[in-house]
């Protein structure tokens, strides 16, 4: 469902035929959005005609998150594959137009990645992992993982904990299954601060897009807090 934020009314509602876990708008074509979830297929919908215009098929059971890269020609999906021979399907890079896989040799550690985030300035993206760290990758082919830089100190432990960047990309923020909000220096990966934000697992930390000292957090129970 797509909702008009001014009126609060849904403008588009489609039957995706599987439980939807992630939806993302195309950065260059806002009428197109991708849906992933409890299916081996990611669907591209055109909201003007409410029809599926492309499908992307992979040998997975569930898509956890979808991330468009800078110009919208490529995107990354994360999956629930955790078996011994499935490390090559944890993260998959796709060509948006042709629906072909560009690479599935991106992340070889046997942890699922519940969320992805694109750096707002540099050609890189990060993946939250169930190894209790955030991994860093190039957003250029072949999407190489930076093994010398990773962000750890928080806990994921099976929750769909999200991570996000400040507007200038200087700070990476992450929730934690312990209920705390963590802030890391992007360049050095050093932990800057940790706030015990909630008694329930902290699912998301979102820096304010205009006010640099403000952030919002939310927890597993649905509570939202604003922090200075």
Your description of this structure?
With 228 residues, the chain is an all-beta fold. It has a domain at 1-110: Methylamine Dehydrogenase, Chain H (7 Propeller). The chain contains no helices and 21 strands. It has strands spanning 2-3, 10-12, 20-25, 32-37, 41-46, 51-57, 63-68, 74-79, 91-95, 101-103, 115-118, 124-129, 133-138, 145-152, 163-165, 171-174, 180-185, 191-196, 202-207, 215-219, 224-227. The strands form 6 sheets. A 4-stranded antiparallel beta sheet has the order 3-4-5-6, with no helix packed on it. A 4-stranded antiparallel beta sheet has the order 7-8-9-10, with no helix packed on it. Strands 11-12-13-14 form a 4-stranded antiparallel beta sheet, with no helix packed on it. β13 (133-138) and β14 (145-152) form a beta hairpin. It is globular and about 45 Å long. The model has no long low-confidence stretch (mean pLDDT 93). Pfam families: WD40. This is WD repeat domain 25.
């Amino acid at each position: 469902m797509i909702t008009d934020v001014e009126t609060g009314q849904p403008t588009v509602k489609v039957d995706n035929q599987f439980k939807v876990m992630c939806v993302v708008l195309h950065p260059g074509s806002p009428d197109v959005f991708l849906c992933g979830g409890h299916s081996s297929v990611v669907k591209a919908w055109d909201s003007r005609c409410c029809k599926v215009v492309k499908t992307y098929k992979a040998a997975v059971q569930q898509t956890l998150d979808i991330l468009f890269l800078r110009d919208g020609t490529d995107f990354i999906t994360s999956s629930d594959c955790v078996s011994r021979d499935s490390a090559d399907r944890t993260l998959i890079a796709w060509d948006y137009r042709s629906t072909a896989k560009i690479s599935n040799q991106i992340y070889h550690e046997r942890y699922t990645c519940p969320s992805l985030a694109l750096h707002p300035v540099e050609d890189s993206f990060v993946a939250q992992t169930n190894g209790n760290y955030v991994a860093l990758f190039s957003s250029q082919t072949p999407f190489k993982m930076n093994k010398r830089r990773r962000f750890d100190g928080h806990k994921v432990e099976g929750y769909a904990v999200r991570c996000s960047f400040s507007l200038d990309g200087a700070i990476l923020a992450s929730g934690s299954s312990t209920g705390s909000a963590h802030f890391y220096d992007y360049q050095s990966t050093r932990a800057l601060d940790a706030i015990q934000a909630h008694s329930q697992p902290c699912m998301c930390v979102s820096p304010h897009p205009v006010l640099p000292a403000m952030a919002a957090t939310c927890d597993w129970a649905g509570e939202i807090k604003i922090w200075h």
